[in-house]
Each structure stands twice: as C-alpha cells, then as structure tokens.
Amino acid sequence: MNKKLILGLALFAITSFGILSACGKEATTKAKQKEIIVATNANSKPNTYMENDKLTGYDIELTRAVFKQLPEYKLKFQVIDFNSVLSGVDNGRFQMAANALSWTAERAEKYGYSLPLSKSATSVAVKPGMKVKTLTDLAGKTTEVLAGVQVATMLETWNKENPDKAMHLTYMDASYPLTSYVSDVDSGKSDFVMYDQISLTQIIKQQNYNLKVQPIDLGNTDKHTGFNYFIFGKDHDDKALQKKVDDVLVKLYKDGTMGKLSEKYLGGNFIPRKDEMSDAKD
Known about the structure:
Protein name: Transporter substrate-binding domain-containing protein
Low-confidence stretches: none
Number of helices: 10
Distance between the termini: 72 Å
Pfam families: SBP_bac_3
Strand content: 15-25%
Mean pLDDT: 88
Number of strands: 14
Order of helices and strands: HEEEEHEHEHEEEEHEHEHEEHHH
Helix content: 40-55%
Keywords: Signal
InterPro entries: Solute-binding_3/MltF_N
C-alpha cells in the first residue's frame, strides 16, 4: 500500500478518535449535569424582568455569568409569583432565588445568602415639593407595601414604636408591579413609595413621571441594609452550591464583569466595595 495513503489513514484515524473522544466527554459532562432551578418573579426591574419575551435584568444576567463557569450544573429559570419564590426554595422545589432579594433576620434563619450583588440606598419616590429626610417626615402619609418584605416590616415597626407619627399602609397583592406603586404616587393615590434608589430612579426616568427620588436617613441600620443577594436553601447540597456561586462571584467582581453588568442594567456602578463583599454577608 502507498506510504502516503497509509500515513493519511493513520492521521485520519487519530483525528477522528480525538473528535469522538471530545464529543464523548462533552456528552458525558452534559449527562452528569445537575439541574439548578432559579426562581424569580420577573417583576422587579432592573434586577429581573421580561423584555421581548426574554427574561433579563441584573440578577438574571449575573446568574447566567456565574453558571457559565459552573459546567457541572444545568441552569433553568422559573418565573413565578413573588410569594412562591421563597417558599419554593424552602420546600426544595427551587435551588436558588434571584429576585432583588434583601436580608432579614427571619429569612436568614431559613435560607442561605450569597455574597452581596449590589448596593443601593433605601429611598422614597415623592412629589418634587415634598421634603423628606427621615421617617419622621413621612408621619401621616400613605404608602403601598407588600406584606413580608423588608420595607413593610420596617414601617410596621416604626408605626408600633411611634403611634403618634404612624403612616397609613395599604397592602397590595404580590402581583402588583413596582411600576404601579410609583404610578400611584405620581397620580396622587399614595404619598410615597419606599424602595431602592436604583429601581425608583429608572422607573421615573422611563415613565417621565414628575417625581423625585430621595435617599432617606433610617438612623441606625443593619449592616445588610441596601444590599441585594441570591438566596439558597440550607441543606448540604444547597450549601455546596452556595459556596461555588460565591467563589465565582468573587472572580466576576475581580474581572470587572459585575461592574459592567451594573452599568448596563442598574445605570451606574452600584456593586459593593471590596470590604463589603464579605462583611455584608454574615
């Protein structure tokens, strides 16, 4: 047989074996992937929302960036109402939640928290002529809240401790979007809405409302105030997943990915400082 033909056949065999081996490894890796379902309500822009029928937002794209570096997992998102986001993590239906989630002592008892993803001052959206610096300036004012969230709990506590300066709280359904809370302030249905500075600023700008966003002095606050997190369950597998996600978040912080996503989706550099990455988790 011609020597060149023999050499060619040999090279073809080696190349084919290499391709088949690579394909086999890829197929094996995919077969061994563990599915991770991340819950979100897609109703907390700019962290999580739908755009042209696609789920996106800061929390969502950061989640995607994290799992690109964790090939042992297959990422899947589940869009569901807010109340079911955390209960689904609690009962093991979901392995992680990405939904502009803040820290509360009650939640910390049941869930694991990632390193902080972003930081935004607690603020109020009000009419331009309304002067607000502290909670005292909101005495007697009306607002809409979702039961169980950090803002609602804080205002309820304030009302109990300051009955002569109580605010009027109207409880809304979990399906009521943040944009409607802001719209109700613009229309005069309520006097203010308290939320994070990033979200309020973006909604007012996009809707061209005649409102201002004012950071509010809450006095002595918990070190977690203003931070946004991923949430996990607390069993062995959940903790292992949380550790891997945190390790990747550190890499994405250092290589600038978190900063770029913050600029794109949050409208500025709202990522935590280096020292806050660890201090605001525990």
